[in-house]
Amino acid sequence: MAGILYIVPTPVGNLEDMSYRAVRILKEVDLILAEDTRTSSVLLRHYGIEGRLQSHHKFNEHKTAGLIREKILAGLNVALISDAGTPGISDPGFLLARTCAEEGVEIQTLPGATACIPAIVSSGLPCDRFCFEGFLPVKKGRQTLLRELSTEPRTMVFYESPYRLVKTLEQFAEYFGPDRECSVAREISKVHEEHRRGTLAEVAAWYAGHEPKGEIVIVVAGAPQTRQKAEEKDPSEKRSRRHREAEEREMDTDEGQ
Question: Which helix (H) or strand (E) segment is 181 a member of?
Fold first, then answer.
């Protein structure tokens, strides 16, 4: 009987963010795949987990994914963890999940810690619809992607290195407009957690005078709605919308009576 692949989120900061189920699974599985065994050993020792550890990271996942799949098909239960957060979200995990899914291996992904959700919820920007972009390309394709995202209406979420934060914010201001609202979340779930909100120009200027450290999540407001742009170009469109809204209000009044 084939085993199961468990994808297990780990804390992005505070070790208390580990779930009871995650601890139990890591204690029960036959093998734990870790992005960095040294980093993961600290977490495992904290919870008294003594399972067998094996490296699984972006430099070897193409070689090991097939071998791990065969072990699971042979009956081993395997858990995949990353240094922090949910595997597969800007961390190794997608390739192994796809390789196992193609062979019908059961995959159970536990809900848990990730940096992007707390960042967008705390930003004060709309979070009912958003797009996650992760890390932008450092060079090739970066400007093309920024041009495409300049018209994205949904709130956008990015991961960034503290060393590139100011440059990235300045590029966002250039492509999205300096008055676009944003929020920079730093060190989520850690002692020095910080959220700085304002326009792209304001936040870029602030960090230009301060040396940011730690993990960074940038949340940027989406582009103004297409309807608003159409109304600016064609005033009759705005008058037509007002007429429709007046009719809807009259209908609501009649129904209320």
Answer: strand 181-186
The residues pairing with 31 across neighbouring beta strands, listed in sequence order, are: 78
Confidence tier at 225 by pLDDT (50, 70, 90): confident
3-state secondary structure 117-169: HHHHHHHCCCCCCEEEEEECCCCCCHHHHHHHHCCCCCEEEEEECCCCHHHHH
| Dihedral sign for Cα atoms in the order 8, 9, 13, 14 | negative
Q: Which of 12, 6, 11, 42 is nearest to 25 (CA)?
A: 6
DSSP state of 87: T
Q: Please provide residue 230's backbone torsions phi and psi, each rounded to the nearest 5 degrees.
A: -65, -40
| Per-residue model confidence (pLDDT) at position 227 | 46
CB 149 within 8 A of CB 175: yes
Quote the pTM value: 0.82
**Is the CB of residue 38 less than 8 Å from the CB of residue 24?**
no
Angle at 80 between CA 79 and CA 84, to 5 degrees: 130
Q: Copy the structure tokens of residue 138.
A: 């450092």
Query: What share of the chain in percent tops pLDDT 90?
Result: 79
Between CA 169 and CA 86 the distance in angstroms is: 25
CB 167 within 8 A of CB 94: no
DSSP letter string, 191-219: TT-EEEEEEHHHHHHHHHTS---S-EEEE
